[in-house]
């Protein structure tokens, strides 16, 4: 099963990326959280533009419904950012390789998987910062009550990619690993506290 391969094969990269994302810190402030959203927007926006070229409809998936950049922009505005501020957020300059369908789907696996972990984060943000989907945590509420069904639909799309589109599982895995690594590097660079 492709999901087991991706989950097991990215365990180390996933842990590194998660460690670079301080959203579960009990001392997280609104300013810290806004910096995290800026960094995530800077990663998602250019990667989502690349992934828009994937033939999502052939896989039974609706790409527009899965884009997270609009949610991140909404959160930044809810936290006091102006639309002009969001428009000039620096974009990640070292994106993962999404040059093949398999690698692109490996990238998407990471972005979609974040919605599962986002369930824990959204509860933490509600407790510590009082944030909800309309007050700065829309990204972590992506898909609302449909997180499970959206995830299962995505996994079904991956199965179609392997079985009908001939996507090599090792390329899917490489795309997922590259994405976790690129995300961790980007977060480390953009969230580093100046000495």
From TrEMBL:
InterPro entries: Haem_Oase-like, Haem_Oase-like_multi-hlx
Pfam entry (one): Heme_oxygenase
A Gene Ontology BP annotation from the UniProt entry: heme oxidation
Entry's Gene Ontology molecular function annotations: heme oxygenase (decyclizing) activity
Identification of the protein by name: Heme oxygenase
Organism: Roseisolibacter agri
């Amino acid at each position: 099963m492709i999901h087991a391969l991706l989950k097991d094969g990215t365990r180390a990269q996933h842990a590194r990326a998660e460690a670079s994302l301080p959203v579960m810190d009990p001392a997280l402030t609104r300013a810290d959280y806004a910096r995290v959203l800026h960094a995530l927007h800077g990663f998602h926006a250019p990667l989502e533009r690349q992934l828009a070229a994937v033939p999502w409809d052939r896989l039974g998936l609706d790409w527009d419904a899965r884009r997270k950049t609009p949610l991140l922009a909404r959160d930044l505005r809810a936290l006091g950012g102006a639309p002009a501020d969001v428009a000039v957020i620096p974009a990640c300059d070292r994106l993962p390789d999404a040059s093949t369908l398999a690698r692109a789907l490996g990238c998407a696996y990471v972005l979609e998987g974040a919605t599962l972990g986002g369930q824990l984060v959204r509860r933490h943000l509600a407790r510590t910062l009082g944030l909800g989907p309309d007050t700065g945590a829309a990204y972590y509420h992506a898909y609302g009550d449909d997180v499970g069904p959206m995830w299962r639909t995505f996994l079904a799309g991956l199965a179609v990619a392997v079985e009908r589109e001939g996507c090599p599982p090792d390329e899917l895995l490489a795309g997922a690993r590259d994405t976790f690594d690129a995300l961790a590097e980007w977060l480390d660079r953009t969230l580093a506290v100046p000495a």
